[in-house]
């Protein structure tokens, strides 16, 4: 009995083991109490999700900003256009000699100020001195030739006078002979001989007069300066002038810059030797887009900012606007060529505007210095001009950094 009871107990235990998993699977899952706190990460993400702005608000803000920026862009182009492409300009000359020669002296230094007429450099004067001596010799030779021609004129004139006297005597002799022949006193042969002598005398007079005319032509004629002497005098003056050109001088007051000339260098006539900047008051050339020129007129006030003078603004005035530019259009076979482009938008073209400075020029501003120019196309008494001026003031202080 005890053994049978034990077997039954073992089977009941096995039966309980088979039922327990199924019971566990059918049992509902345990739920947490309602008062259990959320994890820390869930608590942080919930406020962020509530603070994130919606996409529509961001788009609305960007659209408003874009419209305001576009309106400011258009308003400033019409009322207060500005550009940072300005540059200081002045009269610049490439000094070149009028004659060719070798440089023997350079009398200036780089960036030296000079006055009008100051000697800049000297060419070797020896070839020019020789040319002067040769011209003087040619003049002396021409003068001697004229003197000889004058003597020939006197001799030819004397021969003409003698021939005229001989002709008159011959005519008188012919008349007497013919009278004697008519009265029968002289033979007819004497009359023929007298007629022959008359023709000879007339021919001798014509020859003498021709010699006189030739002498007059060689001498240049009576009362006229001989052309040979005139030519010799002109050659002498040109030689003396070339000798003075051997010393090149400053055309006006100004500054010598970018000096690259050295002793021993040979320079041809008309070849640039050094750069000269005139002392005349410089000006500013600023490029403005075409749509910025709508309200700009000569005499409009301007505000000028030099990069070399950060933090300072200067007063200026528009002197004028260029009447044209070269768009770079080429031609072939007499026809304009098409300018093919792959750009979506053609870049705006710019027109130079001439601006004058109404104040004294800063000492450290040079030709070619960068300039920012603000033009008050609609005057300076409007909000657009005030804001643009304020922005230019801010830019003037930022120019300390670059």
Observed structural traits:
7 helices, six-stranded antiparallel beta barrel, alpha+beta, elongated, four-stranded antiparallel β-sheet, 402 residues, 16 strands
Can you describe this structure in just a few lines?
This protein is α+β, with helices and mostly antiparallel strands and about 400 residues long. The chain has helices at about 1-25, 40-50, 55-80, 125-185, 190-220, 225-245, 385-400, and strands at about 80-90, 90-95, 100-105, 110-115, 120-125, 245-250, 255, 265, 275-280, 285-290, 300-305, 315-320, 330, 335, 350-355, 370-375. Helix 4 (about 125-185) packs antiparallel against helix 5 (about 190-220) and helix 4 (about 125-185) runs antiparallel to helix 6.
Report on this model:
The protein has 7 helices and 16 strands. By secondary structure, it is of the alpha+beta class. Strands 1-10-15-12-11-16 form a 6-stranded antiparallel barrel. Helix 4 (126-183) packs antiparallel against helix 5 and helix 4 (126-183) runs antiparallel to helix 6. The relative contact order is 0.15.
How do the helices and strands line up, and which of them pair or pack?
Elements: H1 2-26, H2 40-51, H3 55-79, E1 82-89, E2 92-95, E3 101-106, E4 112-114, E5 119-123, H4 126-183, H5 188-219, H6 227-245, E6 247-249, E7 254-257, E8 266-267, E9 274-278, E10 283-289, E11 301-306, E12 314-321, E13 331-332, E14 335-336, E15 350-357, E16 370-375, H7 383-398
Antiparallel strand pairs: 1-10, 1-16, 2-9, 3-5, 3-8, 4-7, 5-6, 7-9, 10-15, 11-12, 11-16, 12-15, 13-14
